[in-house]
Amino acid sequence: MSLDIFSNFSALDELIQIIYQSIYKFVAVSLVKDDCWMVYVGLSDSDGRWWKGSWTEADVHGVLGSKASEKILEQFADQLAKLFVEGELYISNWSTKPGAQLKFTVGPAAKRPMQIPLEELSPSEAAEFATGILVDIALQAKSRKCHLHGSVEPVPSITYQAKFSTPAVDSRSSVSIHATAASSSSSRPARDEELVSKPVKPSHPVDVETVVNHVGDGKVQAVAGGSKKKRPAETEPKPQLALAPKSRKGASLANPNKKARKYEAIEFGSDSD
User: How many CB atoms lie within 10 A of CB 106?
Assistant: First the structure.
């Protein structure tokens, strides 16, 4: 019958909790056996003092009755485990004196707290129990590469998804794009070497007169013959000297448009005539 009772107490098996009480610190360990529920309490900063208490079938019947169903037993164990995990624990009648009647109390603020009487272990029994706990810790540490507290997992990065949806990209097209990019990047140095080794031939003959050195912001730009040609600067017409019109034969010197007058020589007769 006891096996059937404590098979419903699995929630209380292998639990460990720290109890801070006044200036003292205790460690409490809960274990479930086939015929009882056991609690071990150790005092920190002491000479390795440990206490042990247990509940048997008679103790469970005294609380729940002899006709409690498995469902009631399981609910009762779950409630005790919840209080244990939440730290609702207390060491009643605490005293450092040997032989003190200590009690392990679960749910001290409840209307009906559950109490387990404690008795102190001998130094050899305390050392044996503490060694057994350390062996269990070492066996469990194998799954985390023998680390006592386990390796610290890296904090996962948080990614935010964009509110807008991006068009789906075909895997084949993405592969071809990556392949093309890789081939172009690998062949780029070869093309650069070829361009350096071979002289560049202009597609259009370079006209020296159309090369313009534009100095601006420390950069010089050259315009070759293949680009747009610069319009020649408009030059102002030079003033031409007015040539004198050719004089016509027989024209007057004073007025070239008119004929020159003919003067006949006047002959005077001599006094002898």
Answer: 22
- The answer to whether 268 touches 248, Cβ cutoff 8 Å, is no
Domain ranges of the chain: 2-121
Task: Tell me the two tokens of residue 220.
Answer: 């010089």
Pairing of strands 37-43, 103-106: unpaired
**Ramachandran region of residue 183, left (φ > 0), alpha (ψ -120 to 50) or beta?**
alpha
Specify the pTM: 0.55
| pLDDT tens track for 156-188 | 555 545 444 455 555 454 444 454 545 555 555
In the block, tokens 């509110």 appear at 163
Written as six digits, the tokens of 71 are 């469902």
| Correct CATH for 2-121 of 2.170.210, 1.10.260, 2.30.30, 2.40.170 | 2.170.210
Average pLDDT (132-149) is 92
CA distance 20 to 159: 41
β-sheet bridge partners, residue 39:
30, 53
Q: How far apart are CA 118 and CA 100, in angstroms?
A: 9
Contacts of 98 (CB under 8 A, 6+ apart): 120
Instruction: Decide if 91 contacts 23 (C-beta within 8 A).
Output: no
H or E segment and range at residue 273: none
Q: What contacts 105, CB < 8 A, 6 or more positions away? A: 89, 90, 91, 92, 113, 114, 115
